[in-house]
Amino acid sequence: MSQIKPEKLINEQGLRIDGRKPDELRPTKLEVGLLKNATGSAYIEQGKNRILVAVYGPRETHPKHLALPDRATIRCRYHMAPFSTEVRKSPAPSRRELELSKVIRESLEPVVFTEYYPRTTIDVFIEVLQSDGGTRCAGITAASLALADAGIPMRDLVVACASGKVDGQIVLDLCDLEDKFGEADLPVAIIPRSEEITLIQMDGSLTPEEFRKAFNLAIEGCKQIYAMQKEALRKKYIAVKEVAEEETTEAGEREE
Amino acid sequence: MPILVEKRQLVTPGDLIAEGNYLIGESTFREGDKIYATRIGLVDTDGRSVSVVALKGGYIPCVGDLVIGKVIDISLSGWVVDINAPYAAILHASDAIERPFNPQRDDLTSIYDIGDMILAKVVAYDRTRNPILTTHGPGLGKITRGRVIEIVAAKIPRLIGKRGSMINMLKRETGCHFTIGQNGLVLISGRSPEDEDLAVLAIRKIEEEAHTTGLTDRICNLIREESQKRGVSHVSN
Has residue A54 got a pLDDT over 50? Predict the structure, then answer.
């Protein structure tokens, strides 16, 4: 690995390696409906993360024996592009990617009304184009947006955000360096409306008090991202609406 | 028992729509006494019930629906038809040949071959088995002329409009004939390809702007402007 450990992850002013405050999210951009050929799609940029998600379905299950008689199956593929990391990654799915595919699928399943579409499949493809730590969280955030964009009935969106411990401090939304050289990483995915947890993992170690603090911080981060998600979903339709209604008033004025 | 959003307000999955004893309609669900949206769409309410008119969503078969499908396979006793739904539909051979089907005598490919577009009705569907189609009825069967375009199935009601206002306007202004499959496929047949082009353009705009107000008038203007620009002579009625 070409990365070397920076001397300090948090400087004297209490700012982090990328200039953020401890409880600050990375600059985040969300967009829906970019892919024409998918049923639904979403794109997220969070710091230097760039992730594209496509959703197909509900559609017929292939192979047939995987179909469930009473509900839809959700299949999920989390994949990092060979060029997404510092050193070229093999395009073959790694052990880590298989695990993340599974945890992401399990974090999305509780919100989808799978029982509406028995014997079908909903496919979710998460492609990491550029990674900067916290891709599983960003992947979940984007995947739930893509599901909503596909018009799949859901109880709520799912949001994910990580917190952790860096240089002895609890911080929100770890970047790649903080993730690698920090002391702990705590990714959390929640259903914001009911605050139910659909994913929680931890690397490193935290004391019970630190854990509580980090957990609450992650929830706060999730809520901020949740607002951005809703905004992104609405944006697509509101932009069209504004243009269209302008046309109507213009036409009305011309007739007068 | 208030309804917490305005009529025709844009909602996203998980948005709280109403609290209290309302009937729940399309794309909504109840949790306790709260009613939430399950899809992105516009809220519709008549005082007793609340529902969300979805802006996106695939086609779910319903008995009695008129659908347009593509023959994708031929089995021993019938055809498999892609009707743009999560389930492939089945059309039995005996249904199409009006007498008992004899596999030794009857050649299914001579009736409908793979790739043929057909107009059919859903006669049976209960989620546990694939939908069954029939081509028995006036106008049903193989599509031989016109062109078929696909739009998001959730926007079919908008294409028809209130009591057919939108589709009647389209018929009048473009001079084309429209057959709307509930599954999101629309058959357009006009007197000339230019008329059909105009109809396709209008339908694409309706699909994109389904959630806006004053759409019918705007589409009407669009067709008139475009037909003038393209020099399509259009004769009403």
Answer: yes
Report the chain A residue with the minimal C-alpha distance to residue B16.
Answer: A193
Which residues 205-224 of B have a C-beta within 8 angstroms of A? 208-209, 211-215, 217-218, 221
pLDDT, average across residues B144-160:
93
Q: How far is A153 from chain B (nearest CA, A)?
A: 5
Confidence of residue B234 (pLDDT cuts 50, 70, 90): low
Q: Which residue has the higher pLDDT, A148 or A1?
A: A148
Residue of chain A with shortest Cα separation from B211: A241
- Its sign, for the CA torsion B124, B182, B39, A38, is positive
Residue B7: which residues within 8 A CB-CB, separation 6 or more? B43, B44, B45
Report, as an integer, the average pLDDT of B103-119. Answer: 91
B38 reaches A (C-beta below 8 A): yes
Mutate to test the interface with A, among B24, B38, B220 (most CBs of A within 10 A): B38
C-beta atoms of B14 and A154 within 8 A: yes
Sign of CA dihedral A40, B210, B148, B133: positive
Out of B10, B13, B87, closest to residue A156 by CB: B13
Q: How many interchain CB pairs under 8 A, A with B? A: 98
Q: What's the pLDDT score for residue B5?
A: 82
Q: Residue B35: beta bridge partners? A: B18, B30
Interface test with B, best of A144, A156, A237 (most B CBs within 10 A): A237
Q: What would the mean pLDDT of A227-242 be, rounded to a whole number? A: 91
Instruction: Decide: A120 and B130 in contact? Cβ < 8 Å.
Output: no
Helix, strand, coil: what percent of chain A each, to 5?
A: 35, 30, 35
Q: Which residue of A has its CA nearest to B31?
A: A155
The stretch A144-149 carries a mean pLDDT of 97
Cβ distance of A60 and B221 shorter than 8 Å: no
The sign of the dihedral angle between the CA atoms of B136, B81, B87, A148 is: negative
Q: Which residue has the higher pLDDT, B104 or B150?
A: B150
Chain A residues touching B129 at Cβ < 8 A: none
> Beta strand B177-180 with B147-150: parallel, antiparallel or unpaired?
unpaired
Complex prediction ipTM: 0.90
For residues B185, B190, B192 and B195, what is the CA-based torsion angle, rounded to 10 degrees? -70
**Cα–Cα distance for residue pair B75/B77, rounded to 1 Å:** 6
**Which amino acid, residue B49?**
S
Pairwise CA distance, residues B140 & A240, whole Å: 37
Q: Quick one: residue A160, left, alpha or beta (phi over 0 = left, psi -120 to 50 = alpha)?
A: beta
pLDDT value, residue A256: 47
